[in-house]
Amino acid sequence: MSFNVFTWGANPVDFKGIPLGEQERSQMKQITRKRPLATEDIYALREQPDVALRVAAFLKRALGRTVELRESSGFLDPHVSIGGIEYSLFRDEGHGLRELVILLAAAYRDDWSTLLIDEPELHLHPAMARLWLGELRKECIERDRRAIIITHEPSLIKILDADELDSVWYFQAGAKPLPFADAVHERAKDRVTASLRQNPELISQLVFSPRPVLVEGVHDVAALSAALERTKPSEVVSQTDLVCCGGSTEVALWFEIAHKMEIDVRAIADLDACLESSVQRVMDGKSTVIHKYREELALEPPRTSNVLKPLIDKMRLDGISGNPKERANWLADSVPAATGYRVRKDKLLRIWRENGLWLHPQGTIEKVLGIDAKGLSAARTAASVPGEIDRVADWCSYEVDPLGEVELLLNVAVERIAHSIMEALRAEPAAQFCTPIGSSAEADSRLVRVEPIREGVHRLTVVTPKEFKGYWLEFSRETRPSELILQPPERVDLPGAES
């Protein structure tokens, strides 16, 4: 017996439901061995009443929808009702609710101990995905199960407590997978939790950003965003992700966590962050920093504490309290110059900048911006004109690949076309070419026009892109590679035009 298998959403009018006959079901199982489908989860709604009841209860409670299982002509055809309207789950409902029903059924089934789901967010509204994830988490906790979720959706990862970090593993090419919990000291858990409560998306920003930038708070984000938008191209701005940590001590904390997780980050904080032990541990663990300590600061042993101890002692003598802003201002303005401590401090800050940490030499972000107090409007307004904040923005901005420039890539392509013709000229010096040659000649002919100028000399003229149309390059077989540079179109003076 043959039958047609309709995937979800394909030919919805003809789709009658999931076949219930033993022969058809056997064939479905054979198909799913090669191409996994969700049919077993749908069958579970019929064959495990507790699964159907729990799915129905959840949908009613969370979405106000009622789900009823129906069988018609040998097919399982669930129906949905809401507000007096009734319709088929398979034929009339969108991808989202169908996907949610399947994922809920998979979670509630009693025949698994470890569940692996790849990208459950596909076809699901982020809010629905979070609803389902909450149910799955309860299943794992209450029934001692394990689930592995592979996701590219930042909104799925909202961590509010340090104890939840053991459920988040970070994978990257060429490195061992690591759980975030391994990067958190037991004594730092309360601070981590406080930071996560303030910014529940902190973890997702760390793992999904191309190169996250840790900052203290929303005022830093406002100022740096304004400076970046004013000074950098859009592709740089869109990939420079500013992550709020909560304060200078929290920036230091997450700077250490990120380095333990081998996440490439940059961090920006007020000057008092240099006194944080987490920053000192990161820097003392970097071979490049240790080398600079020995070479530029003549430190033995080369440890950060040896640079900072005289400053800390002097700060205590001056009666500076533990207030972060007061400490930052003292470090910026009151370090005695005659002792050489100021020079050593400036060298220390430069070494740290070269290794991913920018501490404001002026002390605080307010001093960088020239404002009296923090405020979103004041920070953005101050950063909307050129100033010291531009140096910070330039340092933290995402570095795009210079080979991504259209003009540079065009030069590379034209040089390649010229080299192909030069090779042919070496074999046949008198030859004249009117088109590109080689395996990519057809595609190259859409990019440039080839003209023989005189014996042994050819000109390539750019046809496209439009902004470079008319750019040209002349060459012979003796032309050196360094001379293969596109020239702008030659100016043609019209008769009577003023010189």
From TrEMBL:
Residue span, OLD protein-like TOPRIM domain: 208-272
Record-linked Pfam families: AAA_21 (PF13304), OLD-like_TOPRIM (PF20469)
Domain of life according to the entry: Bacteria
Segments forming domain ATPase AAA-type core: 90-157
InterPro entries found in the cross-reference section: ATPase_AAA_core, Bact_Antivir_Def_Nuclease, P-loop_NTPase, TOPRIM_OLD
Gene3D superfamilies: P-loop containing nucleotide triphosphate hydrolases (3.40.50.300)
Protein name as annotated: AAA family ATPase
GO MF term set: ATP binding; ATP hydrolysis activity
